[in-house]
Amino acid sequence: MVQLLKRAGIAMFTSLAIAGTCYAETRLQGAGATFPNPIYQKWVTEYQKANPDVKIDYQSIGSGGGIKGITEHTIDFAGSDAPMNKKEIEAAKDPVVHIPTVAGAVVMAYNLPGFSGDLKLTGPIVADIFTGKISKWNDAKIAEVNSGASLPDLNITVAYRTDGSGTTFVFSNFLATQSEDFKTSVGASKQVKWPVGQGGKGTEGVTAIVQAVPGAIGYVEVNYALANKIPFALLQNKSGKFVKASLESVSAAGAGAVDAMKDSLAVNIWNQPGEEAYPISAFTYIIVYKDLGYLKSPEKAKELVKFLKWSIGGEGQSLASSIDYAPLAAPVKAKAVEAIDALTFGGAPLK
Amino acid sequence: MQPPDPDQLGPAVAFDFTAKRAGINYDTILSVVTRACAFSILLMLAALLIVLSSAAMPTIKAFGFSFLTGHEWRSNELEQPRRNADGKLVFDADGEQIVDTIPPVFGALPVMWGTAVTSVLALGFAIPLSFGTALFLIRIAPGKLVGPVSFLVEFLAAIPSIAYGIWGLFVFGPFMQTYLEPWLNSLFGSVPGLSFLHFDGMPTGRDMLCGGLLLGIMIVPIITAISRDVLNGVPRAQVEGTTALGATWWQSSKEMLKFSRSGLFGAVMLGLARAAGETMAITMVIGNNNQIKASPFAPAQSMASLLANEFAEASGGMQRSALIEVALILLLMSLTFNVVARKLVVGKGARTAAAH
Hints:
The complex is a heterodimer.
Chain A: H1 2-22, E1 26-32, H2 37-50, E2 54-59, H3 63-71, E3 77-80, H4 86-92, E4 96-110, E5 120-121, H5 123-130, H6 140-145, E6 157-161, H7 166-178, H8 180-185, E7 198-200, H9 202-212, E8 216-221, H10 222-228, E9 234-236, E10 242-243, H11 247-255, E11 281-289, H12 298-313, H13 315-322, H14 330-341, E12 344-345, E13 348-349
Parallel strand pairs in A: 1-2, 1-3, 5-9, 6-7, 6-8
Antiparallel strand pairs in A: 3-11, 4-8, 4-11, 9-10, 12-13
Helix pairs in contact in A: 5-7, 12-14
Chain B: H1 26-63, H2 66-69, E1 73-74, E2 78-81, E3 99-102, E4 105-106, H3 109-140, H4 143-158, H5 161-190, H6 208-232, H7 236-244, H8 249-259, H9 261-277, H10 280-285, H11 303-310, H12 316-355
Antiparallel strand pairs in B: 1-4, 2-3
Helix pairs in contact in B: 1-12, 3-6, 3-9, 4-6, 5-6, 6-9, 7-8, 9-12, 11-12
């Protein structure tokens, strides 16, 4: 019996060894933001189907972890919702490139029993709600933009993210453009100290609060709200129009920012002008070094470039809208492809 | 038991335990290995303390004692326009507004408050329940029931804390939110002297009360199991003596509790250590707001839930260091509870044994 097991073990080991040496696999390791994780996983799966000799792994450990990983060269590419800040760029030493992959939006999800129709909100109202200045749903300011709707005499329960996140980064940055008081008392960051309400860990934590507490309002990513069928508010944009977050209105916000893309593609697309632009929109990025020499092998660098081009400049984009991520608008896509083409290996172009 | 009849033992059983096989001294090996095991555990604890202290050094240096008394926990910088004494904005030579950057501050008082309140609530819930169950098992329960009930109580301890958390989030919290809390809150609001406990707003089922009660349920098994053992250790002569003197059941039970009070206190301390360190479940029901509010219906944050919430995405060295300092405080707290508890339980056991 023991003999049999031993023989089986040896056979298995040798067959594994043979399988391993059959063809040279290229492995790419990415890590970072959780928000784009579903689309990145889809890209990886679909890409590997077409290219079986490439093995790509993306771990959604959070934007902060991704940036730490690329800075310390422990991963090949990083995902991040917030662009690297000055300090982080300095820590990375060599020049980095932010490549926008898809766009997302943050929506105001709410729970108002007995309220039907679309709730309308403006940036300043949302800022007042999240600083505790507006604490009732039938507040005059909310009633003013929702003329005709009957708003309940109900306390507002604010729900926020307790973990550091790109979502909080985008949302607090948007509110900082809407209210001077918010900017100076709460501030904009991946994690801020909210003066009122209660916190949930992750998008699912915030959603759980919103769904359980009548009168709650929280901020979540649009694709999460769409997938879970949670009602969310129309928001007034810079042009004064109330828009619903949709793939089109988020793409429109991205298109409005193309002029700002000069030295870096990491531009903010919240509060963009444009009739159709949804105001709390943001790109999510893949971050690599401009020179891919840190990958050590040119084959690996070529594969990474191929994967990026496939997902950002090609087929990947059409997969995005199928799971509620806004694809890049055409001019932004052109810029992103341009940036991918400009990547080098050991100083030499990869094309 | 009858001594074994040497004639009936087969050759295999007649083994000479003193024989050494082929020069291998198993006694020495065993002694070395067990010593190494014991020391490596001490070493791990020491390493844990050293690593945590050194990683927490930046905030220990920067905030010192005020880390324990500060009531603000803000991990982001704030930019505020500078104002002069009259409240007017200050501009520099080029006419640009001068903006002051306010660095992050870390004060652990809110999370210590959250841990303290939820732990006290948990004990308030768990102590009567546990002592009651233990007394029942020792003095009332018919022999057939003792086994199954003890097993079920101990089984509660085997349920993973995340399961408690999910139950708390989806079942217990909403139940409290709909039935118990609105009633309690209006009671607090209308009874003079209790109004400081009133929560301005609607209780949401994610607050210190829910967190505390959930922790209470979670520590019932450990307190019950230990207090049952402690009560079991009360000398039979003691119990029978009280009954012989004509004590009622109630009086003799009271004497029993009195006799084993330090052991019971130890059981409570072990429960407290577990309540203070519990992480996953409390994170889901405490509401996660770093604030100090008297009302049990206010969302709060415990030390453990703060770590669970913030550690993964902690940005910047200071936040990381501050979180590690909280972990260090938690570790030292639990260590103190455990040492005190052991002393009480073990000390009691030793005395009981000596009395026999």
